């Protein structure tokens, strides 16, 4: 070992210190600041300490592990090391490698392997084992012990402090907009505030009971995503960074995840191009489900996605019978509408089923419900021209009451929800497009934040099927849209609204990329709500107690 290098600590003591470092902190810790690591390490390891002189050159403020681990010289992602002095990535550590030359040319000596988190000094090429590096190594391998998981949704979650001294709440941080990913940022934030989904990815896909047993034996926490797809692994890594209580900076970047999104979607969703949140949400949920189930061939298997969001509805449909007039001797009976003469229209001109003809009945699974907004008035008087129409949420949800008739594309339909999911995703259809123009509906939807009763939209089970489950929902998250007045998507801005948990201590926050501000929950309905996630009362506790979310499967497809 070179002169000045610190001798390695005993393995047992290092393991004990590592366990201390992953704890949530003592009761008298007012702030979970980033310097916690150094304080705890210095307090735990006794005896004479000789620190490696090169460790003093580390600049934590330049370290950012949110970006894709690619060599800045060779553009390779194999055997990557991070320079802990300037934060750049380089390949290899042997002679004639980019990292080796960087150490000589720039005199930056400390590098960390991005797979093993082992730290080396180059060009001497010796390993460094120092407790003061624990905070950096933790940022690469974020772990969440069960006692820390249990505190995520507590009403009195302690604040954290980053390197700059700014305080923040884990999970309520800004997300960097690295191009045109405003809509994708909003989707990622609201998804990772769904407790069972968040916990599943924070735990690495391993049930809580198994993790507790592993912790009791003093073993390393398992991660079931090692053999899953790159999208699953990066989504899990992003969720851990979003909820990191000891982050170096109070915001995160989705760059590494969105790079894989662009790759998995074959360029359909790029961070350099704006996307529609519903399109991206639908793709992401389905793709995560396929990957966790083991591929599209296994798509019917249960995953955390289906357990959280999948419901079922009954769809009754009947084709509109078009009369040409040739069926009758008198051609004056020609029915251009196609409904009156076929018994598919009532006396008020509204579509109805002809009960004497076949009605097709299907049970259709869904991950989210799309509701239609009433059309905007074509003409407005002088007084009403600046008034934005409003509609109660019960009016738009009537589409699924099993009574209301819908007609589109020559088909009459009626919907009735058969099974509600623990987390109901609702999409308000604000954009309509025909072959000539796209239009935007700015109607405001009035909704409560708690106590939304959906019993009127759910088919009551028969007595033999058991008692009906709770149909009362609270608002969990909301995505709103804003654009230049009089336009459809000019200067579109998507905002995510999420809240802390803990009853009386509940606080709502609104995030637009890096901008995060607290908002009054009584004013949430004033925005153009586009996507909402509703949580069934008690759903989080029920799923946590059940501890039965399926493990991810290895994807067999190439």
The Rg value, from CA coordinates, equals 28 Å
Tally the beta strands: 26
The largest sheet is: 8 strands, mixed
Inertia-based shape: elongated
> What structural category do the secondary elements indicate?
alpha+beta
Calculate the terminal CA-CA distance, rounded to whole Å: 46 Å
Q: Uncertain spans, ≥5 residues at pLDDT below 50?
A: 1-30, 44-50, 330-336
Mean pLDDT, to the nearest integer, reads 84
- Helix percent reads 10-25%
Number of separate helices: 14
Approximately what portion of the residues adopt beta-strand conformation? 15-25%
Topology:
Blueprint: H1 11-21, E1 32-33, H2 36-44, E2 80-83, E3 89-91, H3 98-106, E4 110-113, E5 119-121, E6 126-128, H4 134-140, H5 146-150, E7 160-161, E8 167-168, E9 174-175, H6 182-191, H7 195-202, H8 208-216, H9 230-242, E10 251-252, H10 255-264, H11 277-293, H12 304-309, E11 311-319, E12 360-366, E13 369-372, E14 390-392, H13 393-397, E15 401-408, E16 411-419, E17 423-429, E18 431-433, E19 438-440, E20 444-446, E21 452-453, E22 472-482, E23 493-499, E24 508-512, E25 515-519, E26 528-536, H14 539-546
Parallel strand pairs: 1-7, 9-10, 13-17, 14-20
Antiparallel strand pairs: 2-3, 2-4, 4-5, 5-6, 7-8, 11-12, 11-16, 15-16, 17-26, 18-19, 21-22, 22-23, 22-26, 23-24, 24-25
Helix pairs in contact: 6-11, 9-10
């Amino acid at each position: 070992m070179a002169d000045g290098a610190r001798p390695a600590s005993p393995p047992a003591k290092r393991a004990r210190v590592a366990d201390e470092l992953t704890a949530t902190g003592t009761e008298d810790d007012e702030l979970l600041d980033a310097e916690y690591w150094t304080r705890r390490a210095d307090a735990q390891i006794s005896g004479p300490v000789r620190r490696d002189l090169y460790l003093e050159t580390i600049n934590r403020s330049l370290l950012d592990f949110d970006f894709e681990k690619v060599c800045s010289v060779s553009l390779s992602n194999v055997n990557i090391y991070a320079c802990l002095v300037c934060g750049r990535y380089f390949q290899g550590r042997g002679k004639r490698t980019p990292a080796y030359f960087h150490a000589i040319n720039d005199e930056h000596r400390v590098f960390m392997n991005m797979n093993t988190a082992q730290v080396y000094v180059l060009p001497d090429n010796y390993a460094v084992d120092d407790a003061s590096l624990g905070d950096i190594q933790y940022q690469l391998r974020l772990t969440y012990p069960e006692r820390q998981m249990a505190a995520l949704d507590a009403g009195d979650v302690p604040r954290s402090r980053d390197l700059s001294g700014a305080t923040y709440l884990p999970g309520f941080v800004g997300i960097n907009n690295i191009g045109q990913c405003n809509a994708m940022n909003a989707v990622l934030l609201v998804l990772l505030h769904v407790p069972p989904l968040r916990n599943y990815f924070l735990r690495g896909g391993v049930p809580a009971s198994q993790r507790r047993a592993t912790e009791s034996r003093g073993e390393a926490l398992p991660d079931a995503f090692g053999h899953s797809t790159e999208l699953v692994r990066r989504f899990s890594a992003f969720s851990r960074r979003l909820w990191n209580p000891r982050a170096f900076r109070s915001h995160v970047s989705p760059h590494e995840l969105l790079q894989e999104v662009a790759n998995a979607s074959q360029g359909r969703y790029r961070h350099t191009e704006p996307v529609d949140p519903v399109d991206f949400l639908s793709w992401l949920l389905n793709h995560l489900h396929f990957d966790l189930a083991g591929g599209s061939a296994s798509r019917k298997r249960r995953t955390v996605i289906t357990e959280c969001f999948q419901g079922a509805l009954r769809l009754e449909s009947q084709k509109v019978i078009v009369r040409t007039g040739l069926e009758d001797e008198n051609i004056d009976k020609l029915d251009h509408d196609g409904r009156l003469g076929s018994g598919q229209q009532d006396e008020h001109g509204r579509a109805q089923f002809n009960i004497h003809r076949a009605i097709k009945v299907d049970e259709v699974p869904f991950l989210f419900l799309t509701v239609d907004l009433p059309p905007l008035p074509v003409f407005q008087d002088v007084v009403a021209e600046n008034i934005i129409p409003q509609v109660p949420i019960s009016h738009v949800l009537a589409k699924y009451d099993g009574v209301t008739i819908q007609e589109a594309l020559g088909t009459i339909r009626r919907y009735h929800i058969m099974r509600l999911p623990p987390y109901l995703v609702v999409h308000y259809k604000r954009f309509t497009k025909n072959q000539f123009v796209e239009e935007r509906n700015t109607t405001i939807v009035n909704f409560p934040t708690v106590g939304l009763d959906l019993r009127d939209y759910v088919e009551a089970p028969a007595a033999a099927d058991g008692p009906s489950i709770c149909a009362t929902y609270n608002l969990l998250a909301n995505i709103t849209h804003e654009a230049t007045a009089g336009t459809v998507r000019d200067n579109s801005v998507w905002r995510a609204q999420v809240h802390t948990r803990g009853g009386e201590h509940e606080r709502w926050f609104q995030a637009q990329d890096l901008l995060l501000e607290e908002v009054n929950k009584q004013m949430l309905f004033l925005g153009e709500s586009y996507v909402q996630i509703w949580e069934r009362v008690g759903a989080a506790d029920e799923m946590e107690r059940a501890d039965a979310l399926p493990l991810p499967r290895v994807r067999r497809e190439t």
